[in-house]
Specification:
By secondary structure, the protein is α/β, with parallel strands linked by helices. 43% of the residues lie in helices and 23% in strands. InterPro entries: CinA, CinA-like_C, CinA_C, CinA_KH, Competence-induced_CinA, MoaB/Mog-like_dom_sf, MoaB/Mog_dom.
């Protein structure tokens, strides 16, 4: 079976936002054994959208149209689809009641355009939106192209796809064979090096298949098995994962598309009841902001320090002026003192420090990208690690944060 994805939105067409919905839906369809051979992006223009739909239905069994279901004047997707199919739009009364109740509760006036969010194509199946107002729609046509209409906001689309669309497609197309994927995440190894160590597996892949993806500062590996049920698929994935981890397991830190190093580290801290603080120079609070984005971090993170200037290092966390004068701020000694003192001041189990040269200019004779990261772990001796990055200023700062997270992760693993 062949599907095509059409993303609607001028902001996507102009590159103002990333088309993350398309990749999510494509992966979801692949997991059902539905191939996606084409994707289109169309601005908020009904004529061009109709042209895109006409092209898609000539070459696809299922056309997925995403976005343009909201209450504004340029949200015309369902109207265009209905007109193209020669059908009218009908009201999902339950969805309309939800909209009316919401507006009454929030004390806002309900306009005609707001009511449009409860419409779906006659003869189709209204798909409930648990995280928004605009319903989706699935139009199944015997011996012709089917249409799936989904909202644009990722939070709404992802929930609707997982909760409702997948079961509907399985039932409609009587899908029994299952594609099951497992995403492995690695830090400290580049995509080329990872692929090189797995060359023979990639070259000879059959079932499961392997695919590498470079992310921001890390690499993911997707294993995909094709089987009659989840049990068989999991057995295939387990066997392949063991082979992979025997080769590159030292770089592995977690699973899943919706995961990252900060989330893994914060969850480790919570699980082991370890508190943490930080003293940041070149990263200027980026480490603390990053872990602060993870739910539950308040249980282990009381706060920290941003000591950008040399004077701040001395005045806020009592790094001896003699250390700064003798060794400079870009030094092993300063990184150690920063970690040691911040841990002492906030009485935490762990402290991490960052000092160095973000760039683009040199500092104290050190080239841009020179970074020292200090780590104080409970009663262990405080240590500092030197790094040399060759990116722009912002990437040097971000790589510093990632390497700091990885040092913490490894220290926790080593001691627990």
């Amino acid at each position: 079976m062949q599907a095509e994805i059409i993303a609607v939105g001028t902001e996507i067409l102009l590159g103002q936002i990333d088309n993350t919905n398309a990749s999510y839906v494509a992966r979801g369809l692949a997991g059902l054994g539905i191939n996606v051979f084409h994707q289109q992006v169309v601005g908020d223009n009904p004529e061009r959208l109709d042209d895109a739909i006409a092209l898609a239905e000539k070459r696809s069994d299922l056309v997925v149209v995403m976005g343009g279901l909201g209450p504004t004047r340029d949200d015309l997707t369902k109207q265009v689809v209905a007109r193209h199919l020669g059908r009218k739009l009908v009201v999902d009364e339950q969805a309309l009641n939800k909209i009316v109740t919401h507006y009454k509760t929030t004390g806002r006036s309900l306009g005609d355009n707001d009511r449009l969010q409860a419409l779906y194509v006659d003869g189709g199946r209204s798909l409930p939106n648990e995280n928004g107002m605009a319903v989706g729609d699935f139009i199944h046509q015997a011996n012709w192209t089917d249409f799936l209409v989904l909202p644009g906001p990722p939070r709404e689309l992802i929930d609707m796809f997982d909760r409702t669309v997948v079961p509907v497609l399985r039932d409609t197309y009587q899908i029994e064979q299952r594609l099951k994927s497992r995403v492995l995440r690695y830090f400290g190894i580049g995509e080329a090096d990872l692929a090189r160590q797995l060359d023979d597996l990639i070259d000879n892949q059959t079932n499961p298949t392997l695919a590498t993806y470079a992310k921001s500062g890390e690499v993911t590996l997707r294993l995909t098995a094709n089987a009659k049920d989840d049990q068989v698929a999991n057995a295939l994935l387990d066997k392949m994962e063991k082979t992979v981890q025997d080769r590159i397991g030292q770089y592995f830190y977690g699973y899943g598309d919706d995961n990252d190093l900060a989330t893994v580290v914060v969850n480790q801290l919570i699980a082991h009841h370890l508190s943490i603080t930080a003293a940041e120079s070149l990263t200027a609070g980026l480490f603390q902001s990053t872990i602060g984005s993870v739910p539950g971090v308040s249980a282990v993170f009381p706060g920290g320090f941003v000591t950008y200037a040399a004077s701040a290092k001395h005045e806020l966390i009592a790094v001896p002026q003699s250390v700064i004068d003798q060794f400079g701020v870009v030094s092993e000694q300063t990184a150690i003192w920063m970690a040691q003192q911040s841990k002492k001041l906030l009485h935490t189990d762990i402290a991490v420090s960052f000092t160095g040269v973000a760039g683009p200019d040199e500092l104290e004779g050190h080239p841009a990208g020179t970074v020292w990261i200090g780590l104080a772990y409970r009663d262990e001796p405080v240590v500092a690690h030197e790094y040399h990055f060759a990116d722009d200023r912002q990437l040097n700062r971000w790589r510093s944060v990632l390497n700091g997270l990885d040092l913490i992760r490894r220290a926790i693993n080593d001691h627990n």
